Amino acid sequence: MDNHYFFFQTLCLIFYTGSLRFQKNRTKKNKEENRDDMGDNGRGFPTYCRCGTRVIRLTSKTITNPGRLFHKCPYGDENNRHHLFKWTDESMVEEIEDMKQKFDEIERASSTFEKGLQVCESEMESLAIETRTCCSVVSGYEKELRGFEKEIEDVKMELKSLKNMVVCVVVFGLLYKLFM
Ligand SMILES: [Zn+2]
């Protein structure tokens, strides 16, 4: 544990000296510009520092925050706000919050989709009812048509018998005239 802490301290020292050297090499104007650009405003786990360097994840070995994970720019530290320093648990909370927001959005979208689906289903159901009504109306018409056909057949039969009766009367009339 002590070895780790020593290693961490040395690493910090190396990075800090590196950052000092890095900053010294810049012109005053560039320094001012970069000071404005630096500091991470993004949410969630950071990937890059504003200075363009990829951030690293480390474990804190300090007495105030022992074992606490953090992301930082290799050129910065907790007290140097010109480079990125972010506690991983805080990033995690942001990630969870953003994820929850996304889930809420998905839930809202899915409920809207479900409502649309329900409307579609009810429309389909009413269409099916209309189709069934149409079918029953058509079958009613068919029955009526069959009834008409039967009536026409009956009328035809009546006409035939009437015709026979007329023929009989005429024949009888003629026979009466011939033989009487
Ligand atoms: Zn940086």
From TrEMBL:
PANTHER family: ZINC ION-BINDING PROTEIN. Pfam families: Zn_ribbon_GRF. This is GRF-type domain-containing protein. InterPro entries: Znf_GRF. Residues 138-165 form a coiled coil. The chain crosses the membrane at residues 6-22. Keywords: Coiled coil, Membrane, Metal-binding, Transmembrane, Transmembrane helix, Zinc, Zinc-finger. GO terms for molecular function: zinc ion binding. Residues 49-91 form the GRF-type domain. It comes from the Eukaryota.
